[in-house]
Amino acid sequence: MSSSIHHPKPYSPAEVAEILQAEVIGPVHDRRCLYHLWTDTRQAMPASESLFFCLRGPHFDAHDFLPQAIQNGLKYAVVERLPSEIPPEVTFFKVSDNLAALQILAAHHRSRLKSTTVIGITGSNGKTMVKEWLYDLLWPDYDVAKSPLSYNSQVGVPLSVWKIEPHHSFAIIEAGISQPGEMEKLERIIRPDVGIFTYLGSAHDAGFTNRRQKLTEKSKLFQQVKNIILGTDQPEVLEFFSNNFSDRHLYRWSFESKDSDFAFQHVKNDIYTLKKSPFKPLSQKECEFAVPFTDELSVKNSFTALSAALLLTNGDRQILRKMAALTPVRMRMEWTHGINDCMILNDSYTADPEALVYALRTLFSLDTSRKKILVLSELDQLKSEQQLEYFDILQRELSVQPSDRYTVYYVGKRPILPIPFSSNAIKIFTTTEELLQDFKHHPPTHTDILLKGARRFGFEKIAQSLSAHVHETRLEINLSAIGRNLSYFRSRLPNSTKVMAMVKAASYGSGSVELARFLTSVGVDYLAVAYADEGIELRNAHIPLPIMVMNAHPHVLPLVIEHDLQPEIYSFEQLEQLKNLSTTSLIKIHLKIDTGMKRLGFEPDHADILISKLQKLPNHIVVESVLSHLAAADEPLHKDFTIKQIEQFHTIAEKIEKAIGYKVIRHIHNTAGSLDYFDDRCQMVRLGIGLYGIAHSPEIERNLQPAVEWYSFVSQVKELKSGDSVGYGRSFVADKPMKSATVAVGYADGIRRSLSNGKGGFYIHGVYCPIIGRVCMDMTMVDVSGLDNIKADDPVEIIGPHQSIQDLARQMGTIPYEVLTSVGHRVRRIYYKE
Ligand SMILES: *Cc1c(COP(=O)(O)O)cnc(C)c1O
């Protein structure tokens, strides 16, 4: 992936030198080649395009990591002192204060962003929740950047601001402070246009003398903003803001309409309605929306996010609909799947008390039936009074949990501070290695694990060893990519065009419920499945969208209707059966016309009979849409045929509309059709393969992003002697000394046996390794003779940056659709957002 796509305006070393007023040692030129800021060598970065900041903390000094970074290809570093050896190819920018330099560079970047509206969020709690949900409500309909999970500190904020690019319409940045004087610095970097204040916490923060001071300090983020959204009705907050920010527009929301700008009212269960807003009133139906939370904190924070989103978009009504699909922040990608159904939250990077509270509540908030492990280390980065506060919080938060629900794993030489843990709730280790040994002998299962340790304890080793990624064959689905691909199609179609997302065959093999949930959150209008069972699965998972069932056999129609699914009607038998159902509640149907696919649908010759039957339909059966399917939209050779299909479709749709006396939604375009043949007599497209980043032409594919990657791992490496044969039937014989690797994936997982003996291969360490011998049911052997460092457990790429779905499809002699849908059930699906 080329980074230039993600950062259209890289900086040149000469510019950096000037912005930082730095003394430069080494080559400096005007080529714009610096895309990334790098502060932590544990994070993988394209080293040659990154600017490394040697930050210092009380117990670490990134200058120590310079040699390692240079070995990894680093070319540019900001330093306070030069290393003893100065490699000639590396450029050093010498400054007196590295952190200040990082902040200056970010502030400069911010000053160049003229057309992005920057939203600054602060408050004692709820910042991350509001930020994440505001993002989910806006994106992908709007181009939005946001800070990563808890990047709200003096280091995190500059890194977040750096990621804003000129094309972003909005950037949501969270700011957290722990003592006076810090917010001014963050304000200069963020320069928000709009401010959100979430909540004033009651806990006394160590760094502040009183609540008033805390409020004053936090509100310094809003020095220059015009609009401030208040997420709380705490009287002291309201009073403070109306006294001190009276020249700004303060927006409030409430559950009554009294003097607030947004008023929401509870209707029933999880349904609310927007009673009042500063924008054009909506119809009553449009005002209603569902909120998928019940706890007060989440409900309130989601309303703050909603008010902000409405304000930013001038009351875009699509946003209300997206409320139903917000997910708890706990489910976010920051949790990774571990071995044995464990979930791991690695929050080692923050040590502030607020982050601890947040992490603990996150750990305990959801899925109360699961066990919890809290892995802590000695906190040598904190001063002793801060440590006391830290353990105070720990004690307070844990004291409300039943002690059989969690175990604390403590790593450190100094004894843990006097916390009254019952002795069976704590395990003590002196080193991280000891703890790893313990995990080896007693691996946790079905447990949520929070890692919170000081840097020198290297808790990332724990995360790695628990990580499922290393030791399993998995299909990784990049939801963000799917969202971007959807946006691309939307950008190519008229604004009003609806999208029906095809989630048949477990969403092309990538998992129906997860995909449906995500697609709901990004505002698709309809879902379609092939069979009733697939639709029922989605309903059971509370997917709220209308769902069309394509193969609604007359026998399953009662089931379809009972589950609030909408049948595709392609035969007279189905129509008869529908009329015979005893229900009289509203049934929406989708009429399928066969315009040349010869698969399902009414023949055009039968249009007149169909129309006469439609005219006799009982009132509760309504034609929601008329559709047809293109047979060769992806093949220019058949252009005339495709156009003929479309014209015939409209002729019949027209007749139907006339006969029934109302307009229906017309749709005929699949992925390929929606780009090459869209015509505005249709109101909807049906997207499938394109969402995964696959299109019929390279020009279009360039605008899409592959959304699926497939990985496995090496089970064993073997040295082969000349004459050794490999696998069943001895179909491969080594003619020289070789090395083979056994990969944990076989034809039962979707690696076709036809790929045996060099017809296909995988990538290991970025090198192509052809298959040798025959593909087995569960394993495949590849030639790794060229790889010196290969060992068991090394990752294997089947589909990824080196080998696309199309490549694999070609090797198998099939199409990407079949590759995706034949990935076996036991291959674990992992979902993530970037
Ligand atoms: C699968 C399917 C689509 C989607 O096709 P893609 O090529 O994946 O976009 C559209 N319509 C119908 C009827 C389908 O069966």
Automatic annotation (TrEMBL):
<feature type="binding site">
    <location>
        <position position="777"/>
    </location>
    <ligand>
        <name>substrate</name>
    </ligand>
</feature>
<feature type="domain" description="Alanine racemase C-terminal">
    <location>
        <begin position="707"/>
        <end position="832"/>
    </location>
</feature>
<feature type="binding site">
    <location>
        <position position="599"/>
    </location>
    <ligand>
        <name>substrate</name>
    </ligand>
</feature>
<comment type="similarity">
    <text>Belongs to the alanine racemase family.</text>
</comment>
<dbReference type="GO" id="GO:0030632">
    <property type="term" value="P:D-alanine biosynthetic process"/>
</dbReference>
<dbReference type="GO" id="GO:0030170">
    <property type="term" value="F:pyridoxal phosphate binding"/>
</dbReference>
<dbReference type="GO" id="GO:0005524">
    <property type="term" value="F:ATP binding"/>
</dbReference>
<protein>
    <recommendedName>
        <fullName>Alanine racemase</fullName>
        <ecNumber>5.1.1.1</ecNumber>
    </recommendedName>
</protein>
<dbReference type="InterPro" id="IPR029066">
    <property type="entry name" value="PLP-binding_barrel"/>
</dbReference>
<dbReference type="GO" id="GO:0008784">
    <property type="term" value="F:alanine racemase activity"/>
</dbReference>
<feature type="active site" description="Proton acceptor; specific for D-alanine">
    <location>
        <position position="504"/>
    </location>
</feature>
<keyword id="KW-0413">Isomerase</keyword>
<dbReference type="GO" id="GO:0005829">
    <property type="term" value="C:cytosol"/>
</dbReference>
<dbReference type="InterPro" id="IPR035911">
    <property type="entry name" value="MurE/MurF_N"/>
</dbReference>
<dbReference type="Pfam" id="PF01168">
    <property type="entry name" value="Ala_racemase_N"/>
</dbReference>
<dbReference type="GO" id="GO:0016881">
    <property type="term" value="F:acid-amino acid ligase activity"/>
</dbReference>
<dbReference type="InterPro" id="IPR013221">
    <property type="entry name" value="Mur_ligase_cen"/>
</dbReference>
<dbReference type="InterPro" id="IPR001608">
    <property type="entry name" value="Ala_racemase_N"/>
</dbReference>
<comment type="function">
    <text>Catalyzes the interconversion of L-alanine and D-alanine. May also act on other amino acids.</text>
</comment>
<dbReference type="Pfam" id="PF08245">
    <property type="entry name" value="Mur_ligase_M"/>
</dbReference>
<feature type="active site" description="Proton acceptor; specific for L-alanine">
    <location>
        <position position="728"/>
    </location>
</feature>
<dbReference type="Pfam" id="PF00842">
    <property type="entry name" value="Ala_racemase_C"/>
</dbReference>
<comment type="pathway">
    <text>Amino-acid biosynthesis; D-alanine biosynthesis; D-alanine from L-alanine: step 1/1.</text>
</comment>
<dbReference type="InterPro" id="IPR036615">
    <property type="entry name" value="Mur_ligase_C_dom_sf"/>
</dbReference>
<keyword id="KW-0663">Pyridoxal phosphate</keyword>
<dbReference type="InterPro" id="IPR036565">
    <property type="entry name" value="Mur-like_cat_sf"/>
</dbReference>
<dbReference type="InterPro" id="IPR009006">
    <property type="entry name" value="Ala_racemase/Decarboxylase_C"/>
</dbReference>
<dbReference type="InterPro" id="IPR000821">
    <property type="entry name" value="Ala_racemase"/>
</dbReference>
<dbReference type="InterPro" id="IPR011079">
    <property type="entry name" value="Ala_racemase_C"/>
</dbReference>
<keyword id="KW-0436">Ligase</keyword>
<feature type="modified residue" description="N6-(pyridoxal phosphate)lysine">
    <location>
        <position position="504"/>
    </location>
</feature>
